[in-house]
Specification:
30% of the residues lie in helices and 36% in strands. It is built from four helices and seven strands. Strands 2-3-4-1-5-7-6 form a seven-stranded mixed β-sheet, sandwiched between helices. Strand 6 and strand 7 form a beta hairpin.
Amino acid sequence: MTKDQLIKESLNFLENVFFELKNNNLIFPNEWQIDHLCYRTETVKEYNFLKIKLSEFSKFLIESMVNGRLISSFKLDKPLVFKHHKIDLIELPSPKAGQFYDSGFEHFEYVIDQEFKTVMSHYPKVQFDTSNMRSKINPDISFKISKYKVKLHHEPLEAIIKEELKLI
């Protein structure tokens, strides 16, 4: 993947997700910023290849074991710009054993300034996944829209990574 391919794919992904959000009358506050995008890989070989490719135009931040698989995070040299969002982090999880994911962008995460229960009460028609709401590290809620996922959390991923690096 080249930098141009990443930009093209990420903007296409965001256009598609926001199209689905609009079609479902899901409008979120402008104060909420997209923290990062998640790019899924089909194989460990592809994961390792993309770690190298992403390092050509971004700074490798960390690789951590999360829920039984490695996840790498990268800070882009130049943020992606979409609407009023400036997104400079890409999360790259390796595939979990026994689970299949298509390669490509799967979700993005908003940093929100409201309690999860408040957000859920504002969007009663949305079926939120609350299974990570009580996680000790970076709790979130999420929902699927079409084939995409949107996650909401309180702390920027980069702040979580800085805390994690202090423990190493």
